[in-house]
Amino acid sequence: MLSLTTLALTALPIALAQSSNDEQVIGVYMFHRHGDRTAKMTPPANFTGLGYEEVHRSGQYYRSRYIAPDADFRINGVNPDIVKQTQIAVSSPEDVVLQDSTMGFLQGLYPPVGDDLATTTLRNGTEITAPLDGYQLIPVTQVDSGTDSENNAWLQSATGCGQATISSNQYFSSKEYNDLLASTQDFYTGLTPALERTFNESEISYKNAYTIWDLINVAQIHNSTYGGSDLINNTSFEQLTGLANAHEWGLAYNESESATENVRAISAMVLAGEIVEFLNKTITSEGKQKIGVQFGAYATFASFFGLAGLQNVNDDFRGVVDYASSMTFELFTNSSVTVSADNYPSEDEIYVRFLFSNGTATNESEPTPYPLFGSGQTAISWKEFTAGMDNFAIRDNEHWCTICGETDGTCAAYASESSGNDGASASASSGEKSGNGLSPAVNGVIGAMVTLAVVLGLEALILVVGGFRVVSKKRLAAAAAATPVNGGEPKSAA
Q: Which CATH class is domain 1-406?
């Protein structure tokens, strides 16, 4: 949905020469969208053959850029044919479309090696050839954020961050949203004959701008007998696309808040922390860890674009990225000395370049470099990069718990530390012990237990005097499941 041509034309000049003669790439981190799938409104969303082809071609491109023996930007010391597991880390949410896309991409990145390389000789002289022409097995780590995201109409609920969901839902009470809801109703109503088999009449509005666009987009790609073709012409589809872009941008990023406080963009804040952590390990391990790959949904792209200020480079960054899009962070040095374990560059000699491909990256349509954080430069020093990312990156559980306002599960420990009196809180922040000689954490637990006892006593009194009764969690859960969220859509909307 982004305008790839426009973006490519507006990319700023590269600050450091993008040439393998001048640079040595020492590591990369890629964030990648899945390939083509079926519509969200006809669940479950399924990965398609077209999607498989899209991500596989993308994997082939990145192989030709970073891994192949003749790659122009070959990562220093990377294994070109047989994957070395310590050099690569791959992750994806527990989602069928994303998991399948990840595996398809990896098949292009490290293809089967053929019988010669896939054959080994045992001690007794027996030759064993690996199956599937030496198909390479690369582990994929499952991440929590984005679980089952392709079966959700809106993706933010998959993050588990309560404040992020609240912030996204605030978009539905904004003037921008309500103005568009009112001004576009006649347009959406006119499309009813093309949508009524999937959407109820009350659902055909800007409230469901993305899922309406998604349904029609999938039909135009796959359904040769699609009945809405008379209503959906180029003009109306372009309008649907623009409205879907505005809708999803409003949910993914709050332009009225600073990057530091933009909890609506929580998925990208977490991603930023993961990127910095991975690339930092590349440096501290002196290149032992080389390639990071993570698959995720389009909303994380939009959130990151907003946090990094890319919408100020080109307004098209406010759009939903196409299938198989990717953004890449190249870690490189301009040192003229060949990088080795004995001669690894210092942090002052290391730079980062951000590249983005809207849709499948190929040799004919290569990723384009763009400036991050309003720097005006498409290659910035490692220190500038980490400083810019640290403005919004979430690097640990405590930070996530704090910004999300969560106090259950693993967040309970951090909630306990701040539950004491002001003096205890001050001591906790300074790392000192309290006056009784116990650590702030222990005092916090004791304080929490005392508080809990008082609260339980008060609750019992209220129940008796007020005539209230206790309701089971199962009954509450059933009631909650029927309560509309996300601007009136049920939680199970897909």
A: alpha beta
